[in-house]
C-alpha cells in the first residue's frame, strides 16, 4: 500500500461540511460516507474524513476544541497562484473564512490561509521549486 494521509476532522454539520469541501475541489468517496462520516479526496495520497461529533467521540475522549482555537494548520499544494486565490474565494463563498492569516508571497512560494465552517485551518499554497533561492 502506498503512503497516504487521512486527516480526520470533527464537524458540526456533515452535509454543510461536505458541500464546503466539494466547493474547494475535494471529491466525495461514497465508499467512506454515511450519516456519521464523509470521505473527501484531495489526491491519491490525501484524504479528509469529516466526522460528526458523535462519530469523533468513538475515536477519542479528548475534547473537541472551539472553532476559535488553533491546533494545526494543514498546508495543501495547489497547481498555481490562481488556484490558491480560487480556493480562498471558494472558502469565503461557501461558509468558510478566507485570509485568516496574512498572505505570504515569497516569489517562489505563495500561500493564503482559510478556515472551514468549523474553524479548521488550511493553507493553500503554490511553490515553484525551480525558483527557490540557492545559497
UniProtKB/TrEMBL annotation:
Record-level Gene Ontology MF annotations: dioxygenase activity
VOC domain mapped to chain residues: 3-127
PROSITE patterns from the UniProt entry: VOC (PS51819)
Keyword Oxidoreductase: yes
Domain of life: Bacteria
Keywords, alphabetical: Dioxygenase, Oxidoreductase
Pfam families: Ble-like_N (PF22677)
Keyword GTP-binding tagged: no
Protein name from the UniProt record: Glyoxalase/bleomycin resistance/extradiol dioxygenase family protein
Organism expressing this protein natively: Parahaliea mediterranea
Amino acid at each position: 500500500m502506498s503512503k497516504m494521509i487521512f486527516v480526520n476532522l470533527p464537524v458540526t454539520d456533515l452535509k454543510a461540511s461536505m458541500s464546503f469541501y466539494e466547493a474547494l475541489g475535494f471529491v466525495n468517496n461514497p465508499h467512506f460516507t454515511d450519516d456519521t462520516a464523509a470521505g473527501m479526496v484531495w489526491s491519491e495520497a490525501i484524504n479528509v474524513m469529516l466526522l460528526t461529533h458523535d462519530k469523533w467521540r468513538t475515536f477519542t475522549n479528548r475534547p473537541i476544541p472551539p472553532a476559535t482555537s488553533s491546533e494545526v494548520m494543514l498546508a495543501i499544494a495547489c497547481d498555481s497562484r490562481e488556484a490558491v486565490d480560487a480556493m480562498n474565494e471558494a472558502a469565503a463563498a461557501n461558509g468558510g473564512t478566507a485570509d485568516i492569516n496574512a498572505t505570504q508571497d515569497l516569489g517562489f512560494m505563495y500561500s493564503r490561509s482559510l478556515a472551514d465552517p468549523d474553524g479548521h485551518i488550511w493553507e493553500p499554497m503554490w511553490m515553484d521549486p525551480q525558483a527557490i533561492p540557492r545559497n
